Here is the input.
Amino acid sequence: MTPHDSVQDSVHDSRVPPAGEAPPLASRTYTDALFHDVLPFWEQYSLDREVGGYFTCLTRDGRVFDTDKFIWLQARQVWMFSFLYRVVAQRPEWLQVAQLGAGFLLKHGRDENKDWYFSLRRNGRPLVAAYNIFSDCFATMALAEYAAAAAMYEHGGAAPAGPGREAAGGARPGPSSEQAREVALETYRRILPRRENPKGRFTKQVSGGRPLHAMALPMIGVNMAMVVQAALGNEAFSDIDIDPEQEITANVERVLDLHLDRAARRLFERVGPNGTHPDCMDGRLLNPGHACEVLWMIMEAGDQLGRRDWIDTATEALLWTVEHGWDRRYGGLYYYQDAQGFPPEKLEADMKLWWVHAEAIYAFAAAYEYTGSEEHKHWLERLHSYSWEHFADPEYGEWFGYLTREGLPSNGLKGGKWKGCFHLPRALLKTGARLQRLEKAGVLS
Amino acid sequence: MTPHDSVQDSVHDSRVPPAGEAPPLASRTYTDALFHDVLPFWEQYSLDREVGGYFTCLTRDGRVFDTDKFIWLQARQVWMFSFLYRVVAQRPEWLQVAQLGAGFLLKHGRDENKDWYFSLRRNGRPLVAAYNIFSDCFATMALAEYAAAAAMYEHGGAAPAGPGREAAGGARPGPSSEQAREVALETYRRILPRRENPKGRFTKQVSGGRPLHAMALPMIGVNMAMVVQAALGNEAFSDIDIDPEQEITANVERVLDLHLDRAARRLFERVGPNGTHPDCMDGRLLNPGHACEVLWMIMEAGDQLGRRDWIDTATEALLWTVEHGWDRRYGGLYYYQDAQGFPPEKLEADMKLWWVHAEAIYAFAAAYEYTGSEEHKHWLERLHSYSWEHFADPEYGEWFGYLTREGLPSNGLKGGKWKGCFHLPRALLKTGARLQRLEKAGVLS
Here is the structure.
């Protein structure tokens, strides 16, 4: 039996037929998984204490199978642990994990133009150039959140000391709050003018060939503004000459006015000028996971800015998304769909991905809190059951990343080039908080 | 039931449990499928008689679901029908199909620098820029083969007249042999200096980050030299200042000396300088279909240049490839593998693709003719049975392109952005010819 088979098959063998018994839909399920399973997995296997940063290519049982450092995932893990330190508890070990990545990012993450690379070798040597603005966006959010956490520590939060500290390289203290804040805002400033041409010289589309707007841009625009605002406050925006409320509003309206087609009851991933739908694969592309993710961001924005109309629209569009995106035969949400039902371009279109389901669960937990409707509760329960029955790994913990359409792990990875310590822990934390409030309100037993 | 489900499910529903009964392993099976099923499918559904070129995005039953024109596939179909006209029979309708595409390519295919685009809109307006040299390579082979076919016609081959002719636009006669030859050789000349940096300004790899050689380059180098030589003869090479034998030899040796690791018994898709294997996902990547395809090209080159040593090495490496690449659990060859058995980067790694199996069948038909060994015959039979049982569509003809690991169609497309009229008909034609000789020799009943 070849190594390939041994790994491939160990995964297929491992699956017990769906447990049938998902853990209860309760805040406890989510917080226990976060603090006793998922965070420990990444704390145990992902930390590169030698040179800083994180290993994200991890097998089912946590072995590192590639030591390259992908900026998206480095930044997302820095954000995650900084956020935990700021909003959950000032645990020294969390700040310490954030320091490992923040120091690595500041030291190696940018090219001579101050654009962020896509990937680096373990030691920080650049591998893949900054070919669009997303590395920059995740770096901005990571460093803004880290700056907030570091400020709490500098103003007397618990010190990340003790043996772990030396292990993390006592000689290498974490970057200061000021240092991180400065690079975060400098990067944010540099992103703004590049948003209309996010790939710069790497753009393969011939100008005028077929203009299409990607939802990813307004989506990360909302996300970035809200994350930086929460971490650094409104005053940070004076340094970058934008008004956070205007920025959030403009991006939310771009999604709701251009990408959301209320007549078709679909949220389109790419649209032509004025929200038209070119009749081609790109123009018909649906991405249910992305839709769920942007819709909860819009709910949170609506909540913060007192725009109930955004919340009403987003919670309804969320139902359209899952009613169409749900696989009636095998359960779970498709990764990609064609709005007309033609064969999707991507071969992995009918696979079931961890992040799609993590984002969908949180989106419905939020929607249920805002609407109290049985429809949202029903879908929350349905997504909860499917996800815990199929993604959770009973043997080694954490969640499988990629399932076949039928719901079996298609490979054993717990982390890779795209799966890191981000979507699942963020969803577990945010969902746990929503469910806690729903339990207190007595609408969830 | 949504359109998506209806399409997705119609495919899943359609599959009968593997027929168990594949048609006999006989030349007749391959030539019948080519002339009575596959070519008619493309002749009926892919021809854009209005503006020229071909539709390649075709549903299971031949409906066009995207009208964009992808240069790789436009060129490959021009090559296929020109080759049929030159080597099989001077059927006017075949030359007519080739003319439709050759005229479209010459009119719309190149940018102002004479580099070939990646894709165009139906009417020829450019969509995606020439971001590497492969469009150029397929255009070279297409126009060289078309030039040979057109020359036969110009020197008295059967005229592509009759109603079909008007339908194809009687007003638009096909490009002349001379015109096509000139652009083919001009393109070939322009490719040579670009081979060490095939993506030019679109290269995302930071120089010096991790130098890796891709097997695709020497592979297409052998292919291009042999196709142009067969179509236009040695004299064509004086126009581009290379010697065809040296060109073929240099590229074959690059594959056998750098990419083939005889100790590991693996053909690596990417290698470091001197054939080293960087311990990362890219450095461990295996692509069994690509390996089978380059190995039959090396067998044909060895046959033509009298290098029995190439044939012996290629036929043995072919066995290593399928012994490791075969899915012992569900049958079929994997699309991608990691040489160490770690999770492959690509989500579609364990899917079963039509072209992988078409190329493998022909590679083993060739290998069996060269070696007469039972091992090669056994694998030829095994690949034949799996492929006809799983890829052939009993209801609408042609082959499904993409199967799940378990062997079920994962979507119904017969053509798309990457599947056109090329791998399957080429393999059917070449395999039919090999099997005919094996039958005459009495080693295949």
Q: What stands out?
A: Chain A touches chain B through 61 residues (CB under 8 Å). The longest strand of chain A covers residues 64-66.
